[in-house]
Amino acid sequence: MIKKLFIAGGLIWFAFLAILVFREQIVEFLSQPKTEPEPETVQVIVQEVVPPVPKPVEIKKPQTESIPFAPLPDAPVVPMPTVVADEVKEVKAVGEKPEGLSTEKKPPAPEDPFGLICTKFEKIPSRFRLVSWEGTKKVEIEDLSKVDSLTKKYARFWLNLRVPYKEFIHPTSKDSFFKPTTMNDPNKRLIAQSFEIKNEALAYTARINPIGYLILRDFKIGGPPYQVTSEMGKPLTSSYYLNFEQNMGPQKFFHDLTGKRNGYPFGGWNVEYRVVKVNFNQNQITVLRKDLKDGRVIKKELNGPSPL
């Protein structure tokens, strides 16, 4: 108990000394007026919120397939026609067409009711030409379509006048040769009908030379006989290459009348044609067209193709 008293007295003593030492500070603290603490100011910062900008959406272009071909050459530049102001006409009202302007479709051109055109009209060259003669009853001709296998020149043959000949082909050399036959032979080829010699002055000289005039008939090409002289390098026959084209709507048909006599019927599809006259000098062919259904006949002059 005494020990506790000594400890309490010591504590009091120390407290008394502390008061003595810090007396001024204690008096100054107690003399200050009590003030309430100022409330803390809260600074509110208003920040403008910017809405986010959406990212642009990329539009993917459709992929096109590459064409594995070489590019076409540049087309030629066609200049655009200039339009004159006077040529442009103003539309007066809505729906009214300008003058001179028509949108109506023109009807197609009517088809030729005759339905036939000539596609070829020219004389047939003669296969034979006159080269020499013996008197007036025997002539020598040259075959312009055959070359002799031995001489390498045009083959030559002797013909007696007014005797028909038949053509044969050698089985080995393939050369042609002619033998006499009769007019009743359906395979007769050639006949020299007549021959005449005339003494005439040539155009390129004043000398008088004999010129042979031979009338030949080629049964293979048909047609009338034709004349060949010794001065002709490339004689022509009196027959023609005569070809026609028949139009039947979208279809076309071709007819070869080479060597056919005048009046020979051809055609088809209820239409019949006949050549009645040929004028080679004027390049015209007279043709009759007959409709087999009603018997109507039309006559027309056709022109041959223009010579080149």
Explain this structure.
The chain is mainly β. Helices cover 9% and strands 39% of the residues. The protein is built from 2 helices and 15 strands. The protein has a 5-stranded antiparallel sheet with strand order 6-5-7-8-9, with no helix packed on it. Strands 12-13-14-15 form a 4-stranded antiparallel sheet, with no helix packed on it. A hairpin with a 3-residue loop joins strand 2 and strand 3.
What are the defining features of this structure?
2 helices; five-stranded antiparallel beta sheet; 39% strand; 9% helix; 308 residues
The sequence of SSEs as H and E is HHEEEEEEEEEEEEEEE
Uncertain stretches of 5 or more adjacent residues: 64-70, 83-94
CA-based shape = rod-shaped
- C-alpha-based Rg, rounded: 61 Å
